[in-house]
Design goal:
Blueprint: H1 6-31, H2 41-44, E1 47-50, E2 53-56, H3 57-60, E3 61-67, E4 70-75, H4 81-90, E5 98-99, E6 104-107, H5 113-150, H6 156-189
Antiparallel strand pairs: 1-2, 3-4, 4-6, 5-6
Length: 191
């Protein structure tokens, strides 16, 4: 068989790169979902209005988990304390932070069964959106393959082989997404 055409490799690499980014974005979204334990990921990316500029919390403070249900946030600038408090209160975490003038503490109450189910449903929604994005990547790769076939860059045999690889790559990443969401759902539902 002749050498693999450049377009063949390019289409697969672009699709795989997009699939990797989709799974990575899903992981970031899922980190922000609350489980039974405290995690710095709940507030890392939370935006704080710092002197009129939206700034991620992790750039304004040292964030730690001193106890399983407590997040401690120590601002680098004491003037940011009120802004950090406001950002937490207006977030969708549903908690009321405390501060001692130096450190903001968030005590996370145990999740009710209803809250756990809502969070598990939200995780599933994130997964569904990721699946849609990945199917769009497959569509784009298939379209590029068709254009390569019409333009004479791909033979019919290579075109058929490439479509098989595109479909297999999508299935491989769908399994990854399902595994990631299953693991997160178990974390959420565990008391």
């Amino acid at each position: 068989m002749s050498a693999v055409p450049e377009i063949y490799t390019m289409v697969l690499l672009e699709m795989e790169d997009g699939l990797e980014k989709s799974v990575s974005f899903l992981n970031e979204q899922l980190q922000g979902l609350r489980t039974g334990r405290a995690s710095t990921a709940l507030v890392d990316r939370m935006m704080v209005d710092y002197y009129g500029t939206p700034t991620p919390m992790k750039q304004l403070a040292q964030i730690g988990v001193p106890e399983p249900r407590t997040i401690a946030i120590k601002p680098f600038d004491a003037g940011a304390l009120k802004d950090i408090m406001r950002a937490i209160q207006t977030s969708d975490l549903g908690v009321n932070p405390n501060n001692d003038g130096k450190v903001v503490r968030i005590n996370l109450p145990p999740l009710s069964e209803e809250q756990r189910k809502k969070l598990a449903a939200k995780a599933k929604d994130f997964a569904n959106n990721t699946m849609i994005a990945m199917r769009n990547l497959r569509r784009d790769a298939s379209k590029a393959k068709e254009e390569g076939n019409k333009g004479g860059d791909l033979t019919d045999d290579f075109s058929e082989q490439l479509q098989g690889e595109i479909d297999n790559k999508l299935k491989e990443f769908e399994v990854k997404v399902n595994d990631v969401v299953k693991k997160k759902t178990e974390e959420i539902m565990t008391i």
